Amino acid sequence: MQCKVCENLNKSICFNADSIGITYCTLTNATNGLGWPKISKEVFDGNKINWDKFFEERDKEIENIKNNTPRKECENCQQIQIAEYSNEKKIKYVLLSPWQICNSNCIYCLGHELPLDKKSPNYMVDYKKVVEPYDIIEILQDMISKNILDKDAKMDFAGGEPTLYPRFDELIDFLLENGFNNIIIHTNNIQYSKAIEKGIKKNAISLMISIDAGSKKCHEKVKRVKSFDKVWQNFKKYSKAKTKDYSGKLCTKYVIVPGINDTEKEIKEFIKQSKKHGATHVALNVYNQLLNNMNYEENLLRHLYSLAEFYKEFAVKEKLNYTLFPNIEYVYTKLLT
Ligand SMILES: C[S@@+](CC[C@H](N)C(=O)[O-])C[C@H]1O[C@@H](n2cnc3c(N)ncnc32)[C@H](O)[C@@H]1O
Ligand code: SF4
Ligand code: SF4
Q1: In this predicted model, which residue has the larger pLDDT, 228 or 18?
Q2: Would you identify the CATH topology of the domain 93-248?
Q3: Backbone dihedral region of 146: left (phi > 0), alpha (psi from -120 to 50 degrees) or beta?
């Protein structure tokens, strides 16, 4: 039956850190900037999800969208569309971000914490807050045994830095052993993972690597840690793991931060390095806060547009697939309206 629905609410689940917790919605409503609040204690008690309650509560939210009485977080959301609705109790997209610690300190990133000091008296409390607020493997195991997780589900890792989660390789191995082959890992690529290498060999893992620079000097300005050589060394090892039927993406990503990395020279060098080290794709974005604060000044929009055009041309020249992320797409839309 065709009706008003939100595909995201209907199909996904988001595992966040303790401060946000588990949510139904993996996106923010761009019209009001609101994210979904934590699901209730009745649904998730801190350890286990009551799946009957989970779907019961979710169905209520979907009913409200259908009846034009959505909760405030969903009002006028771009994700609400007229589409075929099925109340199948299956999750097809999982966002995994329970960990917040990171070994980088990107100038544009608001969502990370410093690695913990094991000797600190608060270590265990902090560990529970920003590294392992709940046992994610146990929850996924529960979903599999109850046939809730679609076998083709997309498993999307973000954070924080996923590879710093002490059980990261165990988690990846668990997913591979259970046949999941649509795993995407967002990483800064500083920490090498044997499990990622195995997943690339099995054609089950794609990487989205945030590099944001072409030169060592600029990389250090954006990331604020010395890691340029390590990142490319690791990338080279991963790209060597590809077999000839690899159909995933080894994508390098560049977030433009004006005044720091917004030059054609850096973008050109970034694409050259990506090609040299075996990337299959490159992606471009501009950092979120800029679009929120710039009031769409014509000069800045034109500058971003011309960098994006240069990036596309040079990627084609180097025979790399390219992607423009939504913020850059938005720049094009703003210039054309
Ligand atoms: C939060 S990071 C987590 C995963 C991993 N640490 C990484 O850097 O890829 C996920 C993605 O969000 C991007 N990101 C973080 N903060 C951003 C911001 N303010 N604007 C645009 N992209 C951002 C990063 O570049 C990265 O590609
Ligand atoms: S309508 Fe928007 S805010 Fe509401 S659940 Fe869907 S994506 Fe999230
Ligand atoms: S590497 Fe990722 S999580 Fe860490 S600071 Fe950069 S964008 Fe944030």
Answers
A1: 228
A2: TIM Barrel (3.20.20)
A3: alpha
